[in-house]
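Hi all, long-time lurker, first post. I run a small reading group and we've been trying to get comfortable going from sequence to structure in the token notation. Rather than ask abstract questions, I figured I'd post a concrete chain and ask someone more experienced to write out its structure so we can walk through it together at our next meeting. Sequence below, copied exactly:
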Amino acid sequence: MGDIVSGTVVEIGRGITVRLDGDLAAATAIVGGLDAGWTTRWKETVRIGGRITAEVVHVDAESGRIGLSTAATEHAELWAFLKSKRMGDVLGGTVADIQNFGVFVALDEGPPHPVYPGVGFVTIPELSWRRFEAPTDVVTVGEHVEGEFLQFDTWNGEARLSLRALRPDPFQAFADGTRAGRRLTGRAVKVVPFGVFVEVADGIEGLLHKDELGVDSLDEDDPDGPVRPGDTIEVVVREVDRTRRRLALGIDRAPLPRR
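-- Answer (accepted) --
Happy to help. Here is the structure in token form:
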């Protein structure tokens, strides 16, 4: 991967099928729709019989298929910059735009993106370890942030970043001192059909499954439901899953020991 190859367009559909030159002619080479560049309408400019120069971004040895990107050759400076980054690198930048699907970051270094507001991009889960209602609860446009480089997104020509990776994970600290059977007092923060999410510590939520409440389903809008958002509830820890960061809660109906 990373090699620059050339070939002839033989088919145009959702992507571009290319017959590569030389020894690679027998392989099936395809430029996917999202790898065909962003600054031109490629279906209007590419023609059967035309020539293409592209970068190899994927090789499937079993099927003999080669994935190509003409976006890589159109924006060689950006591609070279992104390919130089390694997982774990820390990149700084300014929040350029906030959408409900993620946050664009204009990086302090490197070339700008030809289409998007920033080369850096943070998906919603990577903004914070804690629950939030909207991305604007975590960051604001114009704010300078630092994120850990996760991967080079070749489809969008982006540096996928994580802001939360540079902050301590409160769940792991909580798990250090918590075992199954521990009793906790929490606050119901969200009711869903299959259970209730209960905040048992700052930034720590666990799921109290509907079976623990003896009901078939739950409805947040039901005024007669067993638990409503904001209710204080006594729970017991059933399981702590560090890997998936999940806390299973239950109702312990045994009486508390006398002091």
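A couple of things your group might point at:
The chain has three domains: 4-74, 80-166, 170-250.
The domain at 80-166 is CATH 2.40.50.140 (OB fold (Dihydrolipoamide Acetyltransferase, E2P)).
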